[in-house]
């Protein structure tokens, strides 16, 4: 029996990227004989044709599940909505702008045989110097408050075992601190270099205001959460509490 992998992708006004990313994911799994997959494509209240694109794909392919949020709630909310509906033994998350590439899934799956979570880092990042610099400052500051050993919190390409899912706390900005929360819960986390592409379609939803400054503000809450987080084990059950 093939092992199921869930791929969760949030979309906000990315109609041109939806079918392209679906085709890329399908091509990757066509070469993975031991795995089957499902896609949870989450529409975060888009105002363009994203909803129609997702519904068309879901209607044509049972492996694609369209999830529609009633209103725009942000990337973290869309990701958590998809993760909570995932059925796979492994769960991968990607951004919906085609800058992340599912071609890295095979090596991430190999690492997940040993680790609970794999976080990608953009070794050759294809972004403007402003975005690269703001991320560098945020990552270095983050390491002082909630060190986890990973270097690129903003990279959207991550994979983890299903057991990690209940420990991903739903808050605005959670996708940038997923590794911190999981390490704090006792899971093992590693990283690997991943492919990164320049944006070809659509418009970025992030700038210095909502990426750098909000991320620094979030550090206060995440540091508090890590200090107060409770884990436990129930006798006769495997896994983390």
In short:
The protein is an alpha/beta fold and 241 residues long. It has helices at 18-30, 50-60, 75-83, 105-111, 129-145, 178-184, 208-228, and strands at residues 3-11, 35-43, 64-68, 90-93, 117-122, 158-161, 189-194. Strands 3-2-1-4-6-5-7 form a 7-stranded mixed sheet, sandwiched between helices.
Query: What sequence of helices (H) and strands (E) makes up the elements?
Result: EHEHEHEHEHEHEH
Structural class: alpha/beta
The rounded distance between the terminal residues' Cα atoms is: 29 Å
- What is the class in the CATH system? Alpha Beta
List the total number of helices. 7
Largest sheet: 7 strands, mixed
Number of strands: 7
Mean pLDDT, nearest integer? Answer: 86
List the helices and strands and how they pair.
Layout: E1 3-11, H1 18-30, E2 35-43, H2 50-60, E3 64-68, H3 75-83, E4 90-93, H4 105-111, E5 117-122, H5 129-145, E6 158-161, H6 178-184, E7 189-194, H7 208-228
Parallel strand pairs: 1-2, 1-4, 2-3, 5-7
Antiparallel strand pairs: 4-6, 5-6
